[in-house]
């Protein structure tokens, strides 16, 4: 099944083989097969000779198992590929809390680091509150990239982005962090903790009083202590977030937008495509997963339904009648998905696209991932 | 022994808050909307809330984007006598919820504006992780437990929340427990305790939407364990997008093993006035086999769902997509299966 004629085809193998491609970021809304796509791309790139590490966010145990690893964690682990592999593959999963802890310990004095790690707000912020994942995914990507520059451990990093409320959160994380750190609110919080409140203006007093009323004096003090302790980290933090953002804009990065042929997923994909072009981020193309296919285009859903009805009227147990209904259902899905993709293509005609047919079963092992890789590359038989 | 809130019940009439979650792509928003329609029987008012800023409700019901305001959005699903209740919708925005909260509980006039000027609103709603969830859950709580502070507001017989996906649901609903631990004393602490009190009570039911594939079913099972670990009451599992059952069991077996009589199919097709080319017969056999393989996987997953120990409802996959008419169809399915009585 190919995309509508006017849409350029995404050449996945060319992308993977291009030595300049150093980072591939897979983004898209939840439930579109993003993690599987990332893993399949990583496996395929490694088979074709790249030194790959795949950073996944989704803690799906099944995926770890399908790569022959019992457990994925914050340290890259080698994936046992077959002898035909010309390159290598490591896999890891983002551990938010560990990554955050590492940032703190690497940036602050041991004493100060301990103070931060013990603060109740830090504990909540780093492990369980929403939103931290995006910051930490960026941080980890930056770390791996810097390390790879030094020791030549990898020449391709494949990143699976967090299952965000909106796929755009991932892009917004660094900027949000920067604007927060430069914001008046942080300065306000830091003010009393830094010494006598000699420069308190009327506005500041009003705000501090309001916060005390809402939060209670104790909580406000805890927050201030925490922010003051983190203050020393902030410079480095921001600088690195900014660097990672620039890295994502660089030529060596390729964004793949992953979607399913559903209205919501494609709408999210469209937003993402627009955002990437606004931010001058390098968009490689669109992957439409789980597509319905049929080789019986000659028989429309309506014709098949009518024929099925004719047969089932005389023989309710007619196998051919049942098969025609199965075909009608598929043809209806195919037509609907084609319409949805055409609508996307009309708005974004220059986005190279690859349509990946739905598999009959689920992916369980490396062979399954290689099969997905073949489908991504548009080669069903060999490759 | 699990606590009393974990006892499986299929009588939801005492439940005031239905939380609908599910893995991304399983159609949880559709199910939440259908559930709201099904619950809005004669004389019953239902509020359908969304918290993820997607305007999904407006799109599903084909109306203009919703403001931060409770709006009548649809008539509920009519009963046999043709009478029905009303479904209202609310798009909860954290910014508006924050300002409303300040006004309602603290009577902050000028100070509220000052907070905004100092970037506190922005901090609370977009930057500070978790604060957003506190605000969203706080508003949901307010809608369920209407009190004297919001005197003129509509009271609802049930609130349906289109909640964040399963990967985040425990964190989302549990954020107030976290907050209560941080605040220790004061107004925030008591508010957080009240919200957790509602979420952990028998007045709340958390339903999980899945499709019959391995990963979503696994995630559903994990979510049930996680929710129970947080003392949050699991409601039902709603199996969505079930494939049509066009082939009988023996036909599925035949299709799977490839023992389809090509001559017979050719004859049938000709009789049904379809151009019975060799390719077409091949296609039908292949599609029949793939369908049978999928069905076998679905049946295996369905058996796993049955072992989760919670009530299960099933909704069909609609090949034409979801529109307001389809939502009523799904609502009728849910009601027929006894979701609302």
How does this model look, in words?
The complex is a heterodimer of chains A (383) and B (341). By secondary structure, chain A is of the alpha/beta class. Chain A has one domain: P-loop containing nucleotide triphosphate hydrolases (Rossmann fold, 3-Layer(aba) Sandwich). Chain A is 56% helix and 12% strand. The longest helix of chain A has 33 residues, at 217-249. Chain A is globular, with a radius of gyration of 25 Å. Chain B is an alpha/beta fold and 341 residues long. Chain B has a single domain, classed as Rossmann fold. In chain B, strands 3-4-2-5-1-6-7-8 form an 8-stranded mixed sheet, sandwiched between helices. In chain B, helix 1 (28-39) packs across helix 13 (324-336), helix 3 (94-106) crosses helix 5 (120-127) and helix 7 (166-183) runs parallel beside helix 9. Mean pLDDT of chain B is 88; it is low at 1-8. The interface between A and B is large, with 77 and 88 residues.
Average residue-wise pLDDT of chain B: 88
Total DSSP helices of chain B: 13
Structural class of chain A: alpha/beta
The helix content of chain B is 40-55%
The CATH homologous superfamily of chain B is termed P-loop containing nucleotide triphosphate hydrolases
Output the CATH topology of chain A: Rossmann fold
> How many beta strands in the DSSP annotation of chain B?
8
How are helices and strands ordered from N to C of chain B? EHEHEEHHHHEHHEHEHHHEH
- Element pattern of chain A in H and E: HEHEHEEHHHHEHHHHEHEHHEH
CATH class of chain A: Alpha Beta
Give the tally of β-strands of chain A. Answer: 8
